[in-house]
Structure formats: C-alpha cells, structure tokens
Amino acid sequence: MFFFFSEKSYLCTNFQPQRAAIQPIETTMLIDKIDALLKEVSELQASNAAEIEQLRLKYLSKKGEINALMAEFRNVAADEKKTLGVKINELKQMAFAKINELKEQAETQETGSDDIDLTRTAYPYMLGTRHPLSIVKNEIIDIFHRMGFSLAEGPEIDDDLHIFTKLNFAADHPARDMQDTFFVRQSDDDVTKNVLLRSHTSNDQTQYMESHQPPIRVICPGRVYRNEAISARAHCFFHQVEGLYVDKNVSFTDLKQVLLTFAREFFGPDTKIRLRPSYFPFTEPSAEMDISCHICGGTGCGFCKHTGWVEILGCGMVDPNVLDACGIDSKVYSGYAFGMGVERITNLKYRVADLRMFSENDVRFLKEFEAAY
Ligand code: DAH
C-alpha cells in the first residue's frame, strides 16, 4: 500500500497513523520548516549594517522566525521533542554565526573602504631610547676601538681561580669574604673552586690570557656584583669596563698616553689627568687616575669635593705573577691593565643624582636620554 505522508492522507478516516513508525503531521511540517530555514539562513546575504539588522530581527528577535518555531515546538509530542530540539538549536546557532559573520564582513569592508584619510597624521609611536649606561659603555668601547682595542667579554659567574687566585689575590684577601661577595657554590676542600658572581671585570683578563697569546689588546665591558647595601651612592650590581694590553716592551708611558687620549676624547680636549700611586694585587706598580673636574673646570666645586679632581679608574702594569699564572711568559712580555666604573663615568657626564635610577626602568628617566646617541 502506498500513501503520501500529506495532510490529506493523514485526514483520511481509514488511515490510522502508527506513532512509532510515522511522525505526526505537525512534527513533519516543523522539520520541513526548520530545514527550509536552515537552507535560507546558510545563504543569507547583506551589504550593510542596516540590512544585517533586518536579518537579525527576522530570525533572532523575540518576534522572529526562530522564536515562532519555539512556540510550535511546545505542541510537539514528548518523544519527538529531543530530535526537534536539537534541530532548532542547530538553526539558532547557525543564525547567530551567520549574522556575526555578515557583521564582520561588513566591518572589514567598511575599514577597507575609501573613507580612510591617507593624509591624516600617523599615531605617534613611543620611541625607545638607549639606556644611559649603554650609551656611555658604547662610547668608551668606541674610543678604545679607535686605538686598536677589540671587544672581549667574559662570564659574570666565574670561579675563584679566575676572579681572585690567578689575579694574585692573597688567600685571606677581604674580597673573598662572604660579607663582600655573592657566592653561588662553595667548595669544602679547595677555595679556588668556589663559584661566585664576579666582583670585578678583571676575571676577563685571566680568561682571555689563558686562551690567547700576545699581542693582546682588549676592552671588556660587563656587569659586576658586590654585597653592598643599596643606596643613592652604592648598589649590589654595577658595570665596569676592563682594558688589557700585553706585548713586548709595554711600558707605563704607553698606559698613561692611552688613558690621557681616552680622557680627552670622552670628557673634552682640555681635560687633564693625574695618576696617584695605589695598590691592586694584579698590577705592579698600580695607580688610580683622576681627571680634572669638568664641572668646575678644576677650580673646585661640590661635585669634586673642592679638590678640582675626580677619580675615574684604577690601573697599573700587569703583575708578572698574573702573566705567568695565565700561561704568558713574563720574561718576554709585559702589559698594562685598567678598570673603570661605567656608572661613575655616566654620572660625570649626565650627573644622575641617584644610582638606583639606572635600574628602576622608569621611562620618564630613560626618556631624558632620547637625544643622547
Ligand atoms: N678590578 C678593580 C676594581 O674592581 C679595577 C681595576 C684596577 C682593574 C686596576 C684593573 C686595574 O685592570 O689594573 O676595583
């Protein structure tokens, strides 16, 4: 027997619908309606926001098609509700997705349209600046580079052997004290195996000399660490630039001339230098170098504590013990070394009142140096 599942056949008196096998007509019609709407929604088109709003009202508003379906859904037999519910949900989600898609399309079309004003001034970009310590460090490197020094960098975490022992530090030197230095690892039986945050860049000398034979002419910038209470004038880390020159017949005169050239290049051609005798375990003789105070021109001011001179570095002739400890024959070669604090030199140039400002990352401070390089 053939019958069409139509309203008419359903109404035939001799036709007894069997609920389990055949759906009632309301359900079937509802399914057809949902299918038709699914097709319709999947093909929706709109060219502007107003049209999209119309579509939203048509399908998704309170009085829209999908809500109307919900009203019909309430009359569906309980055992059909599940399948139909899933279908209506699918339709609803598709309508949402489609309308959102149309909105996005319209927005990108709008921004891509010809109402862009190409003559308008661009939004200002925040320009980054170089850190004042980097500016000064680069300037120092540059000056020594012109005098034939090349760049060599060593480790910030190193062993006692390279930071102290090979640099001729006595076993009981205070720099080895817990109070002064940050130790990373301490060896029970052999002090030279202690590992620490270097307290000066002079370990770059031992590291470099171990793997290079003269002529050596290097400049080594880097960060160093000391166990200091942090204040406006001291910090637990700061920066140094180390210099090392080793060759045959190197004399103190060479050292003095190189340092004078540096001081004049960096602080100006009228700068004077003076060398005061001092002591470092790794140089003999040793000296500290002052420059004439370029703030008062040497007449005396608060900055130079009314002496007319400001100390900027330590230096000296490399101690023969250091050369020998690093595998360089001290009977054939001699050399000089120096080390300067980058913060100190930056302060002389830019007069930063508080050392902590260098590591606070306050952009207002950094912006002061926008024009400095
Ligand atoms: N290492 C010294 C310090 O941290 C600075 C120094 C002095 C380095 C004399 C040198 C030098 O190379 O010859 O105070």
Describe this structure in words.
By secondary structure, this protein is α+β, with helices and mostly antiparallel strands. Helices cover 38% and strands 18% of the residues. The protein has twelve helices and ten strands. Strand 7 and strand 8 form a beta hairpin. Helix 3 (49-60) packs antiparallel against helix 5 (78-111) and helix 6 (132-146) packs across helix 11. The longest helix is centred in the N-terminal third of the chain and has 34 residues, at 78-111. The radius of gyration is 41 Å and the shape is elongated. The chain starts with 6 loop residues before the first helix and ends in a 6-residue tail after the last helix. The chain binds 3,4-dihydroxyphenylalanine. The site of 3,4-dihydroxyphenylalanine has 11 residues, from strand 9 and strand 10.
Per-chain topology:
Elements: H1 7-11, H2 25-42, H3 49-60, H4 65-73, H5 78-111, H6 132-146, E1 150-151, E2 157-159, H7 160-163, E3 183-185, E4 195-197, H8 203-211, E5 216-225, E6 237-247, H9 252-267, E7 273-280, E8 283-292, E9 309-318, H10 320-325, E10 334-341, H11 342-350, H12 363-367
Parallel strand pairs: 1-5
Antiparallel strand pairs: 2-4, 3-4, 5-6, 6-10, 7-8, 8-9, 9-10
Bound molecules: 3,4-dihydroxyphenylalanine.
3,4-dihydroxyphenylalanine (DAH) binds at residues 200, 202, 242, 280, 283, 314-316, 337-339.
Task: Give the key terms.
single chain, 373 residues, alpha+beta, seven-stranded mixed beta sheet, three-stranded antiparallel beta sheet, 12 helices, elongated, disordered N terminus, binds 3,4-dihydroxyphenylalanine
